[in-house]
Amino acid sequence: MKDRVRIVETFAEEFQEVLNGCPVVNASFYNTFDYTRTGNNYSHPRTIGLVVKACYSLPEIAVVDVDVRLNTGAGTKFQPDVVALDYEGRCLLILDFESPNSSDARIPKKDIEAYLKWIRTKPYSVPYLIITSLPKRVSPLPPRLGTKHGVSRPRRNKKWELRYTSPGGCNEEHAQYKHEIESEPFKYWYRVYRKKLEELSSEYPDLSNMPLHFGNLDGLLFSFIDMMP
Fold first, then answer.
1. Would you call 102 helix, strand, or coil by DSSP?
2. Which of 22, 52, 30, 185 is nearest to 100 (CA)?
């Protein structure tokens, strides 16, 4: 158990160092939607590259696989962003990075439940780290000024958004909390994730002992999130 925790902690230290040292990544990659827009959608791909770089800093890691399909059949589909393996090809660490665009209601089913179903089929435990991008507080944009000489000034994008709320969308049931989500996304979504873990604990009695970890990027600051009661 200590080794499983150690590799996650060591990765986090390396990842923070890589983030701090990258000249073409800034806090807006994680605390705004600026880098999740058409033509500027770099948050996810660029961060995955940094995650891979951090993984290779660990001496026990021999190879890092990206966009892996860990499907075992019988409906068990687990498709994480990154899988790090040792020199014997054993899986040592699994990671998913969720950009501002995907740090929402999709995480419980796509990430958490998929991992729990997959790990049940394995004779060994593999640490899994989910990294979200959720600022603890979003500073509001200054009020939009009126027109000047009859010309409307350009509208600035909101710093945070709640997307996919139309009927059938993944965030439809959260639409009524739009203001709260766009003001304090970290507080809202982690409340949702904790509630889901509580519900899953009846199906997975050993959930609290599983190497399931959560980390969050508030701007460029990475921190672990304690999810267990």
1. coil
2. 30
Q: pLDDT band at residue 4, thresholds of 50, 70 and 90? A: confident
The tokens describing 120, both together, are 């049940």
Residue 146 predicted with pLDDT over 90: no
Q: What's the longest Cα–Cα distance across the chain?
A: 71
Closest CA to 174 of 158, 189, 159: 189
pLDDT tens, position by position, 119-140: 988 878 899 999 999 999 997 7
pTM for this one?
0.91
Pairing state between β 128-133 and 91-97: parallel
Q: Cα separation of 66 and 191, whole Å?
A: 29
User: d(Cα 77, Cα 89) in Å, to the nearest integer?
Assistant: 21
Kindly state the helix (H) or strand (E) to which residue 47 belongs, with its residue range.
helix 43-56
The token pair at 178 is 């739009």
